[in-house]
Amino acid sequence: MLVVDGLLAGAEGLVDFAADTAVLAPVKAAANFYPGVRAPAPPGYVQALITALRPHLATTFGAPPDGRAHVTCALSMAVLPADQATPAQRLPHIDTTAPAQLAILHYLCGPPHGGTAFYRHRATGFEAIDPARAPAYLAAVRGEMADGAGGQDGYITASNALYEQTTVVASAFNRIVVYASNLLHAGVLADRPAGADPRAGRLTANTFFRPET
After folding, report:
1. What residue numbers bound the domain in which 141 lies?
2. Taking a C-beta distance cutoff of 8 angstroms, is the pair 133, 140 a contact?
3. What number of H helices and E strands is found in the chain?
4. Overall domain count for the chain
5. DSSP structure class, residue 189
6. Which candidate among 57, 90, 102, 185 keeps its CA 20 to 30 Å from the CA of 191?
7. What is the CATH classification number for the domain harbouring 134?
8. pLDDT at residue 44 is higher than 70
9. Rounded to whole angstroms, what are the CA distances from 141 to 77, 124, 163?
10. DSSP-derived secondary structure for 10-65
């Protein structure tokens, strides 16, 4: 995992873009579990972010310092109240089983909006889910849900009967957190989020980076 503060200058301008220009809307894709709204990030931001991060990605994760990569990026705001969220949105999740993909989380909000926590699934002992582990993990979780053990009234913010919290990275304005996308993680979210105003709510830029081989 990598945490870098203040890497990019002008982060306030990204907040202005989200507030004045971006059209934040729910993502309706069937596989999307994000409890909020999203909009595409400006292309110039994505290029500046990856250029600034490349040396860090090479040092920390062994990613090629140059070369092609598949990159997607969105501005995101968690706005869904916990009582309207599905169990999959309230519990830890992964973004993909692909071990090479990295998640790059850029906080455009401050400490009042929680952070990001990482978890170990108690029954399997898994913290990361790769293709080999996915069948066993999914079977275990389905069994727990069927037994009623997965009943989580609010967003998970600490250890519970199913998951042990291993690490928490607090939010801080212009903080960047990079981690493997197949790690079990969850946003530390209030059960009643602050709302959809980018200048007052939980605004982040969420990027996925996968080197092309």
Report:
1. 2-211
2. no
3. 4, 10
4. 1
5. -
6. 102
7. 2.60.120
8. yes
9. 27, 10, 11
10. THHHHHHHHHHT---EE---TT---SEEEEEPPHHHHHHHHHHHHHHHHHHH---S
